[in-house]
Amino acid sequence: MPVLRLLICLLCLALPAVAQEGAPDRSATGGATTLEDILARQRGEKVDDAYRATDTGSQTAPLEAQLGVRGGASDSEIFRALRYGAADVTVSARGPAADVIIQDDGMWWLSLREGALRDYGTYALAGMIVVLALFYLLRGRIRIDGARTGRSVTRFAAFERFGHWLFAGSFLVLAVSGLITLYGRDVLIPLLGKEAFATLALACKWVHNNIAWAFMIGLAIVTVNWIAHNIPNRHDLKWLAVGGGLFSKGLHPPAKKFNAGQKIIFWLCILLGLSISLSGLSLLFPFEMPMFAKTFALANATGLPQAMGLSLPEVMTPHQEMQYAQLWHLIVAFAFITIIIAHIYLGSLGMEGAFDAMGSGEVEEQWAREHHSLWLDEVKSAEASKARPSPAE
């Protein structure tokens, strides 16, 4: 799966460099680059650069040694000390990590964000659109098979629809603003120019940060409203066995208020919504809500990363925490958007009568009979109980 491959790629790139076996002896240069290092690079060979993090002028070598330190630190050594956070820096600011002048880990984050992650995410979105287009061409719109009764049934109350549209509407705004931020430099700058895109990007950032609160409130409302209706039951197995009748005309497996497909979407929305909310909060409050160092510590305690030959870092700077949070935020966002594209299709163009459930809240009784027959029976039974006179009467 693309998301799994991206996650593995993310973990592998994030690991601290491990010195290769048989690394050259650099004691003669006080740990600095040796002639053999230079020649190896010229020959196109891979050279482990982990040693450069300590080549900051703090080590000494004999005066007669080749390429040894001469006197004070050189400009290169000072730059490396700044790059790897080893320099003695004094700043006037008092905020967390204010003394970080250069953040070296930003390069692997940037290359992954603008490279493999964005590529695979694009493939996932485009792939879902292609699949749905083919499904529509082969299956067509799922129509109401039986004769319409002219009677309507209340499927969702006003508060249920409010929670859904708050959750869905805010998600769409977040998705669009996030995609503009991700693809804007390559796609929009050539069309709009840098100044216009800068204004748009700033607006997207503000909207994204503030609409996030509406998304989280909507997530809470949806969870409270529907979690009891989305507990799996034996009817879900029958629904899944025939693909919900989506691929066969006239086939309508029984289902309660939510069928197995809707339950899968519900739980994915809850899990992905919770995950993307937590990573978003970590980005909004990076110094107050670091997530990944503690998460990696728990993962390492299980022994699973070690079994895969990995060692996840358990100590991170705030910048590193933000890079992990941003990448995870984007991975979850791509998965979320891909799923919601399918949900939007089935709830509008893909199925006749489906949009009415969230539009007016009322659905045609025949539609309810075909797609949620067990739920309709419960509704009819409840209505009959209310209409039946009590014994006292």
From TrEMBL:
Report the EC code(s) recorded for this entry.
Answer: 1.2.1.2
Q: Which residues cross the membrane?
A: 120-138, 165-184, 211-228, 264-285, 327-346
Q: Which InterPro entries match?
A: Cyt_b561_bac/Ni-Hgenase, Di-haem_cyt_TM, FDH_cytochrome_b556_subunit, Formate_DH_gsu
Cellular localization per UniProt = Cell membrane
Instruction: Name the Gene3D superfamilies for this protein.
Output: Transmembrane di-heme cytochromes, Chain C
| NCBIfam families documented for this protein | formate-DH-gamm (TIGR01583)
PANTHER family documented for this protein:
FORMATE DEHYDROGENASE GAMMA SUBUNIT, FORMATE DEHYDROGENASE, NITRATE-INDUCIBLE, CYTOCHROME B556 FDN SUBUNIT
The protein, known as: Formate dehydrogenase, gamma subunit
Q: Which organism is it from?
A: Ruegeria pomeroyi (strain ATCC 700808 / DSM 15171 / DSS-3)
